[in-house]
Write a structure and sequence with these properties.
single chain, alpha+beta, Immunoglobulin-like, two-stranded antiparallel sheet
Length: 148
């Protein structure tokens, strides 16, 4: 499946489709963990009469080629727990993203600074070689004794 391909989610009760949605909502934790572009979440609100029959619900995910896979339906207590922690967890994860981005920028800056002394040393070495070589002096005009 391509990272940007979206699944069709179908909810069935007694073998009949009662709801359908595209799994295209953003979930930062998916993106953060390298699962596509992170836009693979979905939310389907079920009518009250159906909510009392959660054990009878079947949820299926269908890809573009038409193959389907059953998904596990979370229990009401799992849904309640997720609802309680979702907002605080999202804030923590957002701050973690900012921290990780800052850390990457710091690493880039450190690498840049480490390269600069190397370049300066290379430059000084090259300059030192050209300046440190003894130069041949050209004979200067002036008095020369004549050979006898």
């Amino acid at each position: 499946m391509a990272p940007d391909q979206r699944l069709i989610i179908r909810v069935l009760l007694d073998g009949k489709v009662i709801a359908e949605a595209v799994a295209d909502r953003n979930r930062p934790d998916l993106r953060r963990n390298g699962i596509g572009d992170g836009k693979h979440a979905f939310e389907i609100v079920l009518p009250d009469p159906v909510q009392s029959r959660t054990n009878d619900i079947v949820v299926m995910a269908r890809n573009g080629s038409g193959s389907e896979q059953a998904l596990r339906v979370p229990q009401p207590n799992e849904q309640a727990a997720e609802a309680l922690i979702a907002a605080p967890l999202a804030k923590v994860l957002d701050k973690l993203d900012v921290l990780m981005a800052s850390q990457r920028q710091l690493q880039v800056s450190q690498r840049s600074l480490q390269r600069t002394p190397d370049l300066d040393a290379d430059k000084a070495e090259t300059t030192g070689l050209s300046e440190g070589r003894p130069r041949r002096r050209k004979p200067q005009g002036g008095y020369r004794p004549e050979a006898e």
